[in-house]
Specification:
Shape: globular
CATH architecture: 2-Layer Sandwich
Distance between the termini: 41 Å
Number of strands: 4
Strand order of the largest sheet: 1-2-4-3
Order of helices and strands: HEEEE
CATH class: Alpha Beta
Structural class: alpha+beta
Radius of gyration: 13 Å
Helix content: 10-25%
Strand content: 35-45%
Length: 87
């Protein structure tokens, strides 16, 4: 098992590489490093977190808007966060 710092560094590197591509997809409002969620509960697994306004079933997305489940061996977790506004 990799140590936490090594995992975080790898995810950050993947984020830098793919952030622009991910941000161009429908509903995506942010990309970050965080913990995967399952059923609304945080797991202990670090992941590249792709934040979306609203989760949409994959079947309803255009092929270019589908978010991969992993990138370069890093798990990708799509999390619904709603609309993000600056105050």
């Amino acid at each position: 098992m990799q140590d936490l710092q090594a995992q975080t560094d790898k995810i950050r590197a993947v984020r830098r590489t793919y952030e622009g591509e991910l941000m161009s997809k429908a509903n995506v409002v942010g990309v970050g490093v965080g913990y995967r969620q399952r059923g609304g509960e945080r797991t202990g697994e670090l992941a590249l977190v792709v934040m979306v306004n609203k989760k949409v079933p994959e079947a309803l997305l255009a092929p270019e808007d589908v978010i991969p489940t992993s990138l370069e061996g890093v798990p990708v977790d799509v999390q619904e966060v709603g609309e993000i506004r600056a105050y």
